[in-house]
Amino acid sequence: MTNSKTPAWPSRIQTLCHQVQGGSEAARGELWTLLNTSIFMYLQRDQGRLGGLAREDMEDLASQKALDLLGKAEQGVWDPKTRSESEIAGYLAKVARNGAIDFLRKQGRQVTVESPAELEPLVSEEEHPSESPLSSVARREYVDAIKECFEQLQERSKRIWFFRVFLDMSSRDIATHPEVGLKSSHIDVVLQRTRKAMRHCMDQKELNPLEIPTGTFVELWKLVENRLSGERE
After folding, report:
1. What is this structure's pTM?
2. Residues 29, 217 contacting (CB under 8 angstroms)
């Protein structure tokens, strides 16, 4: 019997990694979403200890680290099937913390680490949520809500948001895309405004962007891709 204090989502990660190695595209999208949300959760938890990260920085960092782990899972380089739920959660906490430290140091910001142990996640089973951070609201409600928020954006903003959120394209790559054609500095401004608009819209609907249900990413990908593809025709 599973300990009630052990989080359920690390077990789901084990299952998804196995499915991803088998070539499941649906599992790939769900795994990225779960990794991204979990890493972001740990970044928020450690924000005060590390001197503070902007929300946009945490979002980008979580997305990047989630993609890195997804790639390793697809190649079989990272396979958590022999790890316990608490070990998987602890590993993701470590990925988040070390990623934040590296980011801050590259920005020229001083990060005080008292001992090597500080680089390890301060993780215990009691610290983890007892249920997946993605399971509190029905997937359909989220997809419909995000669709409505997405439709309120200007056309160019929609494409920029899609390129960053779903394709993880850099600001430079987005700027030079034939469907965008802006300076990279302008892309950052548009992304900041778009994130703010999407967050405000979700807040008005009383939906927490950190509690996106599993499977939402895949459905949303198809919806937005079809929407933008239709405009290109």
Report:
1. 0.51
2. yes
Q: Do residue 117 and residue 207 come from a single domain?
A: no
Short-list 197, 28, 65, 40, CA closest to 134: 40
Write out the two tokens for 199. 């967050």
* DSSP letter for each residue of 132-201: -TT-SS-HHHHHHHHHHHHHTS-HHHHHHHHHHHTT---HHHHHTSTTT---HHHHHHHHHHHHHHHHHH
Same domain (yes/no): 102, 146 = no
Token pair of 18 as six digits:
């196995």
**Same domain (yes/no): 158, 209:** yes
Interacting residues of 175 by C-beta distance below 8 A, sequence separation 6+: 181, 182, 183, 184, 186, 187
Q: What is the pLDDT of residues 191-221, one digit of tens each?
A: 889 888 888 888 888 776 655 555 566 666 6
**29, 18, 25: which is closest to 139 by C-alpha?**
29
Angstrom distances, CA of residue 87 to CA of 44, 84, 94, 191 = 20, 5, 10, 35
Q: Are 119 and 199 part of one and the same domain?
A: no
The domain of 92 spans 9-127
